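Holo model, adenosine-5'-diphosphate. Inputs:
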Amino acid sequence: MIIETKNAKETFQLGKKIGERAQPGQIYTLNGDLGVGKTVFTQGVARGLEIREPVNSPTFTILQEYEGGRLPFYHFDVYRIGDIEEMEEIGYDDYFFGEGICLIEWAQLIEEILPENVISVTIEKDPAKDFDYRKITIEGLEEI
Ligand code: ADP
Ligand code: MG
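Output:
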């Protein structure tokens, strides 16, 4: 499914709706260039999960855990990962195969360890369109 947004607020709202409907054990992969809106979308998901803490992209940690919401929320940003072993050191499989919600920014960098049944979200700009226009492609979800 493809959703088009006109501004950051709409992307946030889309994430929020997904967070509200998220089911235990789901993994969301998030891909798209730097500055496209992955973190905005993630903040929406966190809001939808009723997480009150601020969510941003930590520079030096691959994983941030949020336990205060409707479900545990595991926010991975693997942009700076050097080696897949770093994921093993974190013990990623406890998160990937647990009962919380995983959301992974820059998931294409760890493709080799991703399970098959992930929900994939890709955010793209379109140079022919407005500066704030985004095309968001979601695969693996029947409906929103
Ligand atoms: P990323 O995590 O992908 O690097 P961020 O979410 O940190 O990107 O930043 C996205 C930036 O783009 C924000 O400054 C946001 O306000 C802006 N923006 C403009 N239009 C949109 C849109 N339609 N959706 C999401 N963000 C948008
Ligand atoms: Mg980000």
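The first strand starts at residue 2 and ends at 5. The mean pLDDT is 95.
Archived with the compound record.
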